[in-house]
Amino acid sequence: MLEKLITEQRNPETMDLDELSTLEIIKKMNEEDNKVIDAVNKELPAIAKIIDEVTLCLKKGGRLIYMGAGTSGRIGLLDAVECPPTFGMDPSRVIGLLAGNNKDHAKEEAEDDPELGKNDLQKINLSPNDIVIGLAASGRTPYIIGGLDYANMMGARTAAISCNKNAEISKHAKLFVEVDNGPEVLSGSTRLKAGTAQKMICNMISTASMVNLGKVYENLMVDVDVSNEKLYHRWIGIVMSATGCDHETAETMYELSEHSAKAAICMIKLNCSLSKAKELLEQNDGTIKKALGILVK
Predict the structure, then answer these.
(1) Is 255 a catalytic residue?
(2) Is 82 a catalytic residue?
(3) How many helices (H) and strands (E) does the chain have?
(4) How far apart are CA 258 and CA 7, in angstroms?
(5) Which of 13, 82, 251, 279 is catalytic?
(6) In terms of Cα–Cα distance, which of 9, 14, 6, 27 is closest to 165?
(7) Taking burial as the number of CB atoms within 10 A of a residue's CB, which of 59, 122, 200, 221 is the most buried?
(8) Which helix (H) or strand (E) holds 29?
């Protein structure tokens, strides 16, 4: 069964991998990586549907929950932990569940137990407002199937992302993406092209859903969480770029806005108080352009 999966097959372009020079090896890898972009491109409509569901769940107070094992699980976990600093998202709202006690070094055998997938979702009190996205290069991981089945039973939204066509996990999700990257450079090593494809898709899911939630103004991350000096300087740069104000004004607005770049931008552009800026943002789903009267949709 496993040998029928495209992710497990041998790549005819790299049969001489062990005979190549270092430069030749990485050229081959680069050539194969280029194929990932085209493969993901073919799945964009399906990815967009998942993003719209994620947006709906988050707007209703639900959570985005990634589930996976091995490389796939770590990619979901990475995407989840990047959302709080990048978008000021509550860490409890985007979660990564990794088979094997949800640690960076997972017990690989845990992926074979569907009951563990169910149990991990029970531990975080899965609700109907949540969306569970299963990530599996092979598309057959029992841990994910158990989680998706439980999520469906609980009335939560479900989606599956795999790198094989007609994947088993797709049958257990309401929405699915199946990316065909072709065989890996190193047979069966799905941390390579499959991992790259899944990382690209997770980037799209989190970024686009956060844009939909009003956490982006133009192409600026206006909900950035200032937790260190680098992010403070980024905050200053964001406000300066968005409003055209000078550095001194941005520094002053950092305190006056209570560290909210969104509020600072509205205060400067509308020449209004913090309370008025907060009121306008609250009335307009936290979207700056709506608060400014620019965006009406």
Answers:
(1) no
(2) yes
(3) 11, 5
(4) 50
(5) 82
(6) 6
(7) 221
(8) helix 22-41
> Are 151 and 158 a contacting pair, CB within 8 Å?
yes
Amino acid at 147: G
Q: Phi, psi at residue 155, to the nearest 5°?
A: 85, 10
246 DSSP 8-state letter: -
pLDDT in single tens digits along all 297 residues of the chain: 666 799 999 999 999 999 999 999 999 999 999 999 999 999 999 999 999 999 999 999 999 999 999 999 999 999 999 999 999 999 999 999 999 865 544 566 678 888 999 999 999 999 999 999 999 999 999 999 999 999 999 999 999 999 999 999 999 999 999 999 999 999 999 999 999 999 999 999 999 999 999 999 999 999 998 989 999 999 999 999 999 999 999 999 999 999 999 999 999 999 999 999 999 999 999 999 999 997 555
Q: State the sign of the Cα–Cα–Cα–Cα dihedral 245, 247, 278, 223.
A: positive
Dig out the tokens for 272 from the structure. 């209004």
Residues 6+ apart with CB under 8 A from 83: 89, 91, 93, 94, 206, 210
| Contact partners, residue 212, CB within 8 Å, separation at least 6 | 51, 52, 55
Helix (H, G, I), strand (E, B) or coil at 216: coil
Q: Please identify which of the residues 8, 32, 111, 178 carries the catalytic annotation.
A: 111
> Reduced to 3 states, what is the DSSP secondary structure of residue 137?
coil
Q: Which of 79, 156, 67, 62 is nearest to 116 (CA)?
A: 67
DSSP-based three-state secondary structure for 284: coil
Q: Is 140 within 8 Å of 167 (Cβ atoms)? A: yes
pTM greater than the 0.90 cutoff: yes
**How many beta carbons lie within 10 A of that of residue 19, not counting itself?**
8
